[in-house]
Design goal:
Layout: E1 2-5, E2 8-12, E3 17-23, E4 26-30, H1 38-47, E5 55-59, H2 65-68, H3 71-78, E6 82-84, H4 89-92, H5 102-106, H6 112-123, E7 136-137, E8 151-154, E9 163-167, E10 172-176, H7 205-213, E11 219-222, E12 228-229, H8 232-241
Parallel strand pairs: 4-5, 5-6, 6-7, 10-11
Antiparallel strand pairs: 1-2, 2-3, 3-4, 8-9, 9-10, 11-12
Helix pairs in contact: 7-8
The protein binds zinc ion.
Length: 256
């Protein structure tokens, strides 16, 4: 768990990140790990001397199992609401998930790195199916009335309603899986786009990257991989060339 920008913390579960945004005693949580990451998620809240019930709302980047794991628990135990892009509501509430199937993953298990990852995520609940019937669309356009005043940024492609969240005060953006700095099925590092087999609508990915590149942010907090510091436009350029590793402003970012 690291403070990656002022009052913005990135915590890591099982090969996946979530973000805590602090404002006074209150928190916004962005994404919620695998079902097996619930104890780690609660521990990350306590590590910054807050309680889970201090979370005023959870923002979901997209309805994939590795980002929804704790949502049911947080709602049942603490009554914490969940907000997301309206196009993502159906999948979150129990509809068909737009994600790589177990068969997609099985077909790649001959690669040792993928096998190791497959075993880790099985242990974290990859075959469970969290549903979030209490999820709601964003209550307003523009900045949300939640700690950090997060601004939803539609970047559809990875899923139909994938959203990033821009934190204007911190100059940071939680990019979910629209732009990452790791891919569990490869060894690449630095800003990158996940392998196409993870994406629901790869044809929409370039427009999503254009949207991210236009943000006035210099901290990229991805759904997978370490935080990257530098202008978002540079991160997007590196991802587009497939040359994210160790280049330019991101060279020293492995530490984050
Ligand atoms: Zn993911």
């Amino acid at each position: 768990m690291r403070e990656v920008a002022s009052d913005v913390f990135c915590a890591e579960g099982t090969d996946v990140n979530w973000v805590l945004v602090r404002e006074g005693t209150d928190l916004t949580l962005i994404d919620a790990g695998w079902p097996g990451d619930i104890p780690k998620l609660e521990a990350s809240v306590r590590a910054i001397r807050r309680r889970p019930e201090d979370i005023r709302g959870v923002l979901l980047t997209h309805a994939h199992v590795d980002h929804m794991g704790a949502l049911g628990h947080l709602h049942a135990r603490y009554g914490i609401p969940v907000y997301l892009d309206p196009a993502e509501l159906g999948a979150a509430a129990g509809g068909r998930l737009e994600q790589a199937s177990p068969l997609d993953v099985l077909a790649r298990l001959w690669r040792p790195q993928v096998l190791a990852w497959g075993l880790r995520i099985l242990g974290a609940g990859a075959l469970r199916r969290p549903s979030v019937p209490h999820a709601q669309p964003f209550p307003s356009a523009g900045p949300l009335d939640l700690p950090g005043r997060p601004v939803p940024v539609p970047c559809h492609g990875h899923t139909s309603g994938h959203s990033a969240y821009f934190l204007p005060g911190a100059g940071a953006v939680a990019t979910g899986d629209a732009l990452t700095t790791a891919d569990p099925t490869t060894r690449r590092t630095g800003p990158q786009i996940l392998s196409p087999f993870f994406a629901h609508a790869p044809a929409r990915v370039p427009a999503a990257l254009d949207t991210l590149a236009a943000l006035a942010a210099d901290t990229l907090i991805p759904g997978h991989g370490p935080t990257w510091h530098g202008p978002l436009a540079d991160a997007v350029a590196l991802a587009r060339t497939g040359a994210g590793a160790g280049a330019g402003a991101g060279a020293a970012n492995g530490r984050a």
